[in-house]
Please model this.
Amino acid sequence: MIRLVDIHKSFGKQKVLDGLNLDIEDGKTTVIIGRSGGGKSVLLKHIIGLMKPDSGQVLVDGVDMTRLNDRDLNEIRKRFGMLFQEAALFDSMTVGENVAFPLREHGKMKEEEIWQIVADRLRSVGLSGVEEKMPSELSGGMKKRVGLARAIAMRPEIVLFDEPTTGLDPVMTEAINQLIMDTQKNFNLTCVVISHDIESIFRIGHRIAMLYEGKIIEHGTPEEIRASIDPVMVQFLSGSVEGPIVIM
Model:
């Protein structure tokens, strides 16, 4: 569904993406791993069209997003949902209003239909009956689930997750992992997940891609990644300070 072809991106003299290539399979979960500050979030922003590369192509079903005007880009973005690292809920809105937000922004639905969808999406993430609560009343895990309900409100084909388990305890991490897997399966989604959590990547990923020095240096199934002999991959997965990855 998504192909990134020879993507280059620099900020001033800092080269972040350096000839990156990656194919993201339709109806599967691809997890992107790599060092903090290594360009994973920048890559995610290229996929959804929030950033344009200095050169290269971002193809969604063969359509190059880098060549679209703003109107066409906004249209193709309707196929995407995104769960931000801190859920990014609107503090001044109730849970229900947060989930309803994209429906009101992009659709022409009656209020009754909107609230039926809100209830359905909240139910799908295990949060029935919380529409009137404010984000400040929710735990970190609940906020992530509301964020996911909002991300799938428009029935997108593709959902991007930016470190969905960051800041969560092991029990809630496993709950979010299970929720991602269930949501991907139930809605037949193409998912792209950024994660540092080694256990999580092998739990949720159909494919895993390692980003290092601006390139994807390894891309395969969990079994193939576990069996990798690439020194960078071996060091990253083991968490060792010894190896080619320089500790800054």
Notes: Residues 90-155 form one domain. The longest strand covers residues 14-24.
